[in-house]
Design brief:
Blueprint (H helix, E strand, L loop, with lengths): L7 E4 L5 H12 L3 E6 L2 H12 L5 E5 L5 H15 L4 E4 L17 H26 L6 E5 L6 H4 L9 H4 L2 H20 L6 E5 L17 H12 L10 E3 L2 E2 L3
Parallel strand pairs: 1-2, 1-4, 2-3, 4-5, 5-6, 6-7
Antiparallel strand pairs: 7-8
Helix pairs in contact: 1-8, 3-4, 4-7
């Protein structure tokens, strides 16, 4: 712990699944966690569950698609903590249905997907960046997906090269865009102590994919936690899973 006290982390979309587990694991490592969700009651309840385990977790209502909500959250964090050390952009949405061809997915679903997965992430990052700059060594973790990898999508040996995952073009493209944002912000912050990275959690069993996947939620959160707690010699502008680089 530094002279500034424990690190403070904000995890978006943290009322369940990988986000909730990320909040748990960070808190277990001594980080003060701001657990955020877009609705008040589920957010408060999720934080309560972790607090009952003796963890330092606070609820923070934050709808990443609402500029007013984001502004209010920034003001709350500044008033209560003065800075932000870790931002885990975990909030995400998958609204497309499996089984359709890419061209059959409605355009409205593209807009809905990008509103959360990209525009919300960009808005949250940009709004909280002044508070992250106040940290001794800020960390920004953007939760992407292997579906954001164009290389893997073109690899006939990859599980992404299948009709199942080619039926999620908007989700996949939004995660590719997240990776691009990661590279751009890492460049902007290259001369600062702040590190910005994209992570692939792994194909994790969550509500978003109807319980499909190879990993349990604890393993799915592990890469986000690792990158949130990077040492000063860790990478920036990278795309990783479990310590291994994922091809763009």
């Amino acid at each position: 712990m530094s002279e500034y006290g424990p690190k403070t982390a904000l995890v978006t979309g943290a009322t369940r699944g990988i986000g909730f587990e990320t909040a748990r694991q960070l808190a277990e490592k001594g980080v003060r966690v701001l657990l955020s969700g877009r609705a008040h009651d589920p957010t408060v309840e999720a934080a309560r569950k972790l607090r009952e385990s003796g963890l330092e977790v606070e609820p923070l209502v934050l709808d990443v698609t609402s500029a007013d909500s984001v502004s209010a959250a920034v003001a709350d964090v500044e008033d209560e903590h003065g800075r932000l050390d870790i931002l885990v952009n975990n909030a995400g949405s998958r609204v497309e249905k499996y089984g359709r061809n890419p061209s059959e997915q409605p355009l409205r679903q593209w807009r809905e997907t990008f509103e959360v997965n990209l525009f919300g992430l960009v808005g949250v990052t940009s709004s909280f960046l002044p508070l992250i700059r106040r940290s001794e060594a800020g960390r920004i973790v953007n939760v992407s997906s292997l579906l954001g990898s164009l290389t893997r999508h073109s690899d006939t040996e990859s599980y992404t090269y299948s009709s199942t995952f080619k039926s999620l073009p908007a989700y996949s493209a939004s995660k590719s865009a997240v990776n691009s944002w990661t590279v751009h912000v890492a460049f902007e912050l290259r001369d600062t102590p702040i590190k910005v990275n994209s992570v692939h959690p792994g194909y994790t069993r969550t509500d978003m994919n109807e319980g499909g996947g190879d990993l349990d939620v604890a393993d799915g959160a592990a890469t986000s936690v690792r990158m949130a707690l990077l040492d000063s010699d860790g990478p920036t502008g990278s795309y990783v899973h479990m310590g291994e680089t994922v091809p763009w």
